Amino acid sequence: MQKKTDTEVLLNVVDLAVGYDRKEKALHQDINVSVNKGEFVCLLGPNGAGKSTLIKTLSGFLKPLSGDICFGDIRLQDLTERQRAKRVSVVLTDKLQVQNLTVFELVSLGRTPYTGYFGKLTDHDKALVLRAIQEVGLGGFTHHYIDKMSDGERQKAMIAKALVQETPFIILDEPTAFLDLPAKIEIMQLLRKLSRESKRGILLSTHDLDMALQTADKIWLLAQGKSMQQGIPEDLVLSNDFKSFFERDGVYFDNNTGSFKYHSGNRIEVTLKGSGIAHEWVARALYRLGYKPVAKNSDWLIEVSSNGSHSFSLYKQSKLLATCENIQELMQKITESM
Predict the structure, then answer these.
(1) Backbone phi, then psi, for 135, in 5-degree steps?
(2) Do 337 and 316 meet the contact criterion of CB atoms below 8 Å apart?
(3) CA-CA distance, 206 to 31, in Å (whole number)?
(4) 263 compared with 191, residue with greater pLDDT
(5) CB count, 10 Å around CB of 112?
(6) For residues 237 and 220, what is the distance between their CA atoms, to the nearest angstrom?
(7) Checking phi first, is residue 180 left (phi over 0); if not, alpha (psi -120 to 50) or beta?
(8) How do 251-254 and 259-262 pair as beta strands?
(9) Is the pLDDT of residue 196 over 50?
(10) Over the stretch 137-184, which tens digit does the pLDDT of each residue have?
(11) 41: part of which helix (H) or strand (E)?
């Protein structure tokens, strides 16, 4: 028997076409992608791109129009519901609305494929539930009621439920949709850590391009009228795939920073000299107000102090106009002087 390695393919998708009706044109077709053991993959695309349709198809909630979805060496279509529940666990977008259910009770539902719906938890099952709760950072919340917890804590509980299902593969549809930024970062870092430490394959759909760029091993790009593109984040940036998938009138993707920026007509160039964090935030403030910070010489110059005092000097055609102690004052001076 061939020895399994960390490059073991957990999900393999071949010539897949997805949609809601075989009589209608497929939303997407010719999808050929895979996810390996220990790999964290993010599915990105504009609103209406069909991400949820693809996620539901890969999860077994929608039938593929054509093509194959294989978990390991078995086609999804050939798995019984119980067999599927032992190979892939799913966390959907829907906001959890339950009452009088504790974290322990919710996570315990992940053992259903092994105990049956009315099955009794063994000591082994209970130990797995407690370990999953600890793994997602909810050790102090075991007997807390779900409806009394924050959205981020509830989402962690749902992830623990997926973990205790003991599947080699986890699929999540917009798991951070209802969370604030710190909670989004925490959940994304948690999922990446779990993929590494437990050697699971994890696939999630998200609108958070910045977090995907920072955490994903691979990214799948999906948009209407385009063939799916996949690769590591850096290659997709350099190939301009992010530009082609997400840019629209008034918005463009900056390959240098890996972020989106907006157009606002002809921007007045302002030479910006200095270094450090203050320099970066002055550049952001200038761009936000409609100017274009540049390194080359121009009529306007801002010098950012490098001695830690955060002072800013504004010049026009080499003449000193003002010295400011903060960015707000600097932006006010340059706006008044234009």
Answers:
(1) -60, -35
(2) yes
(3) 19
(4) 191
(5) 16
(6) 12
(7) beta
(8) antiparallel
(9) yes
(10) 999 999 999 989 998 899 999 999 999 999 999 999 998 888 888 888
(11) strand 40-44
Supply the pTM of this predicted model: 0.81
Q: 268-337, what's its fold?
A: Glutaredoxin (3.40.30)
The CATH number of domain 9-247 is 3.40.50.300: yes
pLDDT (tens digit per residue) in 326-336: 999 999 999 99
Domain ranges in the chain are: 9-247, 268-337
Give the span between the Cα atoms of 261 and 288, in whole angstroms.
Answer: 9
Residue 323 is encoded by which pair of tokens?
A: 């010295």
* Helix, strand, coil content of the chain in percent (nearest 5): 35, 25, 35
The alpha carbon of 236 is separated from its chain's Cα centroid by a whole number of angstroms, namely 15
Tokens of 216: 């994903």
SS3 199: coil
- C-alpha 35/C-alpha 57 separation (Å) is 15
CA–CA distances in Å: residue 125 to residues 91, 106, 132, 175, 258: 20, 13, 11, 25, 44
**For residue 258, with 0-12 CB atoms within 10 Å meaning exposed, 13-18 middle and 19 or more buried, which class applies?**
middle
Tokens of 53: 């349709």
Q: How far apart are CA 17 and CA 127, in angstroms?
A: 41
